[in-house]
Amino acid sequence: MRAAITIGHARGERPVEFDVEELLATRLLVQGNSGSGKSHLLRRLLEESARMVQQVVIDPEGDFTSLADEFGHVVIDGAAYSPAEIEALARRIREHRASVVLALEELEVEQQIRCAAQFLTALFDAPREHWYPALVVVDEAQMFAPSVAGEIAEDTRRMTLSAMTNLMCRGRKRGLAGIVATQRLAKLAKNVAAEASNFLMGRTFLDIDMVRAADLLGMDRRQAERIRELERGHFLALGPAISREPVAVRIGPVRSGLKARAEGLIALPETSPEDMASLLTLDLAADAAKASPPAPPRPAPRVEDVARSIESAERAQVDSAEQPDNTEFAARIDAIIGAMAAEEAVAFKSASSQYQTFLARCRRERLIGPMPDMAAFRRELAQRSAGLDALPDGSLARIMQLAQAVEDDLLGPFFVIAKACHAGESTVDEDALARAYGTSSPGRVRRLLEHLERQGLIVVREDFGGDRTVLVPGLEGVGAQ
């Protein structure tokens, strides 16, 4: 496989090539003011090398999610997963060599930083047998490796600096090649920038950034003025993966990304102030009522086909005469599910991981036979985790009847609410509700309640003091706060 890609052209239309194998060993720093073409450059580099090497993109603005359409990258919505799930995803990404985009635009700035830091740390800490080569692109790197303390919490700053330093300083032996892009070199931690051996410097105007860029490129202070005069999409390149001396390069076109936006001046509408005010305020309350609700939690990937293949293979190996009778078989299955329901860590695994754990334990117990499918397993696990088996048969039957309309991934928290409402309790154990949903985020619990209410499964009442009461229609009891 040819390891060189063309990122653009120098004067005289001479192609400027990038040695991807050398990049994996030497890392890259990209700098340029907003509008200089950094994102376009990164996209060009990613597109040209997409078929050569695994790629992981930390995307705080959602600029690179369109890579999924053209090149098959998996887009991971950072807001949709708990910290433990983000770390588990990172480990699987390294194991399966998946090219992904971690989209963080739905998170607040500090949440973006913590999510990216935990994700990068998990990539770095992957088992040695999964140290495959991968490009790790971090856009807006000054957020994740700030040169000075800002408004973020001190523990967050230490966490993200540690993750970025590990990526750039120690990542090479683990197959991780860091590519960091920043608007201002002065805002990027020096120990992170210093580890790069390849540089692409775009237009910048502040003297402190020009001087630092010129020092990295081996230029004197007078030559630094060239950096101020660069056009959009033009960069000065230097490094063992590109050129041994600075070369001006115009970045080539890309295939993915947003369509070009109209730039320049557009005539304003000739609407009178009175009519404009009417357009802005007419039926405003009705329009606000029709606002799109937040999307429900994403369903977990299905694993039934894999489970059936494993089951078929093991049936062929195990003599059916060695298996217990139906009553004993069902009791042992029930015991395994009960043991899983009592484990704290199980609730924070994905549904597919829970089901795989269940099947693995059945195989360990040499139980080969008609297993519950994933949907039946999830309902039974949610029921046991919520403690519904202690309810009278009539009450349990009523709750299970109401649960028929509940999505599988929401059964656990619904059962917790239903049990509290049935018991007439005025409060619900918030820790139990969060655990049943597999999260530690109050925001995700709040969005869960909003989603269940939109489905008509619960009724939420909140007073001016912020106290929230949750009722389940069809169940007796005063509700749960």
TrEMBL record:
Signal peptide: none annotated. Residues 24-214 form the AAA+ ATPase domain. Residues 301-317 have a biased composition (Basic and acidic residues). InterPro entries: AAA+_ATPase, ATPase_Atu1862_pred, HerA-like, HerA_central, P-loop_NTPase. SMART domains: AAA (SM00382). It holds the Pfam family DUF87. Residues 288-325 are annotated as: Disordered. This is DUF87 domain-containing protein. It comes from Qipengyuania oceanensis.
